[in-house]
Amino acid sequence: MSFQETITGLRASGKKVLVIGLGISGIESSRFLVRRGLRVLLVERQDEQAFLAKSKFAPSVEELRSIGVEVLCGVDGEAIAPLLSDVGLAILSPGVPLESAIVGTIVRLKVPYVSELELGVELHGGRSVVVTGSNGKSTTVSLIDHMLREAGIRSYLCGNVGTPVISNEELHQEGSASRAVLVVEASSYQLEACTVLKPAVSVMLNLSENHLERHGSMERYGAAKARAFRLQDGGDVTVANADDPAVMALVHASRAQLALFGRSPLAELLGKAPIAASVGEGGAGGSISLGLEGRVETYRTEESALLGSHNRQNMAAAIVAARTLGARPEAVQRSLETFQPLEHRLEVVSRGSQHLVINDSKSTTVAASLAALTTVRSHFPEHRLILMLGGLSKAGSWAPLLKIVKTEGEAIEPVVCFGKDGPLLASHCRAMGIPSVVAPSLEEATAHALQALTRLPKGVLLLSPGCASFDEFRDFEHRGAEFKRHVRGRLGLPLSAEVPPCVSL
Q1: The domain 347-491 belongs to what CATH superfamily?
Q2: Using one digit for the tens of pLDDT, what is the confidence trace for 141-172?
Q3: CA torsion angle for 404, 408, 413, 416 (degrees, to 10)?
């Protein structure tokens, strides 16, 4: 039975849909279901007083109740059991693990469940591209969306990038043949509950240690990511990073047409897959070569504002995805030249004649911070670097990043460690013989780092935390916004100061 048939049946029977989690996915799912004429019960594990005091979604509670949603807070685990007698379907928000007590209860009582992302994609019924990986997802989906729009192909950017799939207004329209292409950023949290997801194009950017506190192992983390392509067939395309052995170990099981991108020469990549994009040896140079349908296309990248070898990989993946979805080469080229980097991703906050301050709050993993550090050092080799790390450290090793910091020696000032796990990060630095200082909060860390920056003849201050933000902030956007506010306040700049575009990272 399709999800469309399921919803029709629920409406006819009068059974409720249970929505678990009062975040953006749960809120938008509830609104969607009410518009479809369904009875909705939304539950949140936090008690209501705590939720209203702490959550940015607090105003949504009364709004949902006003449209008929039954909102219950402080419900978790077995407490949901008495409420399930007239529930016909449960929708899981990304923050609800499959191993959670509440999911265990609904499984035991045989209530079917679906993730918000999968429900939205399947109800849409049109073409979709699903992008996953440990790093670079938001930039890549935004670039694909930009390429499709430049080519005159309607697209809808959604998923983990910030807009739930279920928010798509097209889901309320009849017919799917002329619908926009869904460009979906998918996290492992969103993918792990997917059972029927089958995108026209899937993209696996990379795989590194991340979210192990939820998944428990790299194997389970990778298995969640692999749900993006496990049901694809020969009419679909799987786009994969040929330079990442962990990615290649997963995609060998895909039955879709394989498309590779990587640093190897194009001929070598085309020997392994019918579609390939080469960014050149070591990611250097000013072009990306694409082999498609027996032709070679060359895309210039020297005018792109996306700098760094990791972003060249993202560009290559986006080119492959957009071209297989029908974007013309000239539109793809224009997109590379006009796309602007996203906020909180190597974003220049302040620039003087010899000093720069860069906000990379989006880097919540060691691998992401390593990519940011490498990019900044390659573009400003004569500048000393002040690196700010901190927040809630995730499971996994800090050695890959700290080895590079150690190798850079005096080019990097003492690392500023902040937040809840600042002392832990400082201990990792000490173990590697790397000088560090500890600040309890982002504000104090920023003040210390700016003082150190002013003492340098040429310097770059880089916030690239390598950690989750939830010790002090709602999310990485909140952390990045507060960092910019602290920097501009201490430097006497307007809070909305524009940074001239002569340097884009």
Answers
A1: Mur ligase, C-terminal domain (3.90.190.20)
A2: 999 999 999 999 999 999 988 899 999 988 87
A3: 0
